[in-house]
Amino acid sequence: MPIIPMVGRRGWKLRLVLIALYGVVIVGAITVLYPFLLMVSLGFTSAVDFDDMRLIPKYLSDDGELYRKYIYEKWSSGITTDGRLKYPLHVLSDRYSLAVKDDFLAPREVEGWYKKDAKEKDTKEPFFDGSDPQVRMRVKDWNKFRAALPANYFDICMGGGGVLPGPSSKSFGNMLEKRYGANLEALNYAYGGEAYASFFAGSISGDVPAMGSDLLLRRDWWACGSADDKARTGKLDEPVLLRQLDWYTFKASTHYEWRQVVAGRFDYQRFLLKKVELVPEDEDELQRAALKKEFGITYRNLRDISLPATVPSNPAEAKLWEEFVRTKWSPRFMRAIGGTDLFIAYLKRHYGSIDKVNAAWGTNFSSFDSKGVFPRELPMYFPNKMADVSPDKSLYTTQEVAKFRKLAYQKLAPRFQRAIEWGLFVQRDLPAKYICLIDSENLYREYLLKKYGSIEGINKAQGLSYKTASTIFPPYREMDFIEVYDQRKDLRWFYVTRNFTAVVNFVALQGPAMFNTLILVLLTVGTHLTVSPFAAYVLSRFRLPYTYKVLLFLIATMAFPAEVASVPNFLLIKKMHLFNTYWALVLPGLANGFGIFILKSFFDSLPEELFEAARMDGAGELRQLWNVAIPLIKPILAINVLGSFTAAYGGFMWAFLVCRKQEMWTLMVYLYQFQMSSGSPSLMMAALVVASLPILILFIFTQRIILRGIILPQFK
Predict the structure, then answer these.
(1) CATH of domain 510-715
(2) Residue (of 442, 500, 506) closest to 474 by Cα position
(3) Quick one: 203 exposed, middle or buried, by C-beta within 10 A (0-12, 13-18, 19+)?
(4) What pLDDT score was predicted for residue 417?
(5) What's the CA gap between 271 and 279, in Å, rounded?
(6) CA gap 266, 302 in Å, rounded
(7) Could you tell me the pTM of the whole model?
(8) Residue 54 exposure: Cα atoms within 13 Å on the Cβ side
(9) Which of 703, 550, 716, 710 shows the shortest CA–CA distance to 638?
(10) If you write DSSP's letter for every residue of 639-699 in order, what string do you get?
């Protein structure tokens, strides 16, 4: 019989009561669902947009937000300890003319890139027409140029950070896995006794000597990230050389979209501003006025400051330019346009004969006048393929690695020595008039002039109005925008699924975590479905003199938190020598006092006549339990299963205490490790969603039994 009769519902008072009841139910449902839905939504985000706390992330409907998210993550160089992305100076400032205070930028400091704002046009990121043929021509020219660049002129972006490797990091890991035959021991031995736990560890690429544009632009590039004086003579350690060889082999094979070119314009800008005791975040007008007054250098704004390829005509700037080249610029990006006689004189002074030069460099010149003794550009010491050093095959064992490492060192060390000597001579001794700087921007200008023949031809093809070659800059913004414009659907799907895919892959790859958790859950639920019903049935059906004392003991266990029992349980497991076993996980919770107490109450509520009828039909106690009692208490058994599953599946501390070996860790222990190593709130939200799915699925399967057995009978 309904609580509120149908006739009574016609009155306005009862209708208001019903409306109020429905309102309370709806509000209660929202308060339950909203946190979960928000958690799911935050799993779709990253460090860029996590703080927005929106049920539907903006990037799913807003191309501007998608663009912002893309450039954040494309040009980031990892994640800080507080979960923020960080960005190298040379990348952002060169592309977006941003004022920078520290070595890295946080997302909120560049919030306005993608927004249109007439008041701050220079610092806001404009949109482009993705179908404009001239915009696409600019990007097409730039992409062709990037695709033809040698590996020495670019770094790799899209690397990601933490436990969330980007596409390039994954590709590098795949190459290493194939290269070393999926043998981590061989990889660690090759890299000098490292302890990488995976081919996809983010620190592998981050530890590569000379990796990163900040190192590529280093003046002392031969040090390869090390202060070891041996590097200056070409006597590098074999692991360092092999690590570099792997990295440059990978770079030479990458797609142009991952190639982060090296440009020194901002370094030159900072150098000039330092000379007038200013910093990049000072007012633009103040900077231009100071440069004009001190050195007679005139620029319309900071974006117009380019790095001259050759000595400037302005004497004051020419002096600064030479100082910059001698003290700041890397000889990797220099071209000698004269001075051959000076270099030959240098070789004769240091070696005396061409035979000694050949012995040191691994060359076969017949005389000092041979072609190529003084190359125009840095003689690259890394081959484009592994096969140029030895047969291109996988290195499956440490013995094969050791053999290859020696062979590679013998072939590459002389080339390295030649590159060092060339670089030192050009950097220190070659007159400035013979030096041409060839960073990516200057090379791009040469590429366009060669392709179109003149400034006018470039302007016509690209729809711009360049006046001189020095005003030509790569289309960094258009490039990023076109990449987003052409991949909008794929990018959105990638960002929606990325975190969840990373969590699933992490859990699936972490040894037997899923198997351990499955065993724990099955044993816990299985014991609770056998021990608890049997104990409760005995206490209910048999009039034992000590039943009250047993019930009192069960109630007493419910009065204390589970942590109180952890110490005696821990000591018991230790005394039984059961650490790092499934018994250690299951035994302390073998009997559930609360479950036994509730089940006894339900057994007590069953009519005695049912059991008498069963006994008259010849049923024994087990038959009565199985055929009479169990079917009638299915709802409470379902609640017990749900509680037992949740406790076993979600238990972390006990599993961590008694199973210290990694191969015995459960899913929750691995997720804790994931939380500690990821540094990303978005990944943790995704991990929580994935972890909650089994409980949600179990509840869906048991809720019908629970509702039919408990709620529906109340309305009959």
Answers:
(1) 1.10.3720.10
(2) 442
(3) exposed
(4) 86
(5) 9
(6) 9
(7) 0.74
(8) 12
(9) 703
(10) HHHHHHHHHHHH--HHHHHH--SGGG--HHHHHHHHHHHH--HHHHHHHHHHHHHHHHHHH
Residues 565-587 have pLDDT tens digits of 788 888 888 888 888 888 888 88
Task: Give the per-residue pLDDT at 605.
Answer: 83
Contact 209, 244 (CB under 8 A): yes
Distance in angstroms (rounded) separating the CA atoms of residues 494 and 480: 17
Residue-wise DSSP of 97-157: ----SSSB--GGGGTTTTS--GGGGGGSPPP--TT-HHHHHHHHHHHHHHHT--GGGEEE-
pLDDT in tens, 339-371: 999 999 999 998 999 999 999 998 999 999 999
The 10s digit of each residue's pLDDT in 398-442 is 888 888 888 888 888 888 889 888 988 998 899 999 999 998 889
Structure tokens at 257: 């979209």
Three-class SS state of 4: coil
What pLDDT score was predicted for residue 709? 57
Spatial neighbors of 313 by CB under 8 A, at least 6 apart, are none
Assigned token pair, 647? 């406790």
Q: Write the DSSP assignment of 46-57 as a string of letters.
A: -TTTGGG--SS-
Amino acid letter for position 265:
R
Mean pLDDT (whole number) for 323-335: 91
| CA-wise closest residue to 262 among 172, 157, 158 | 157
Non-local CB neighbours of 704 within 8 Å, separated by 6+ positions: none
Do the beta carbons of residue 435 and residue 325 sit within 8 Å? Answer: yes
**What is the per-residue pLDDT for 235?**
54
Coil/strand/helix, residue 79: strand
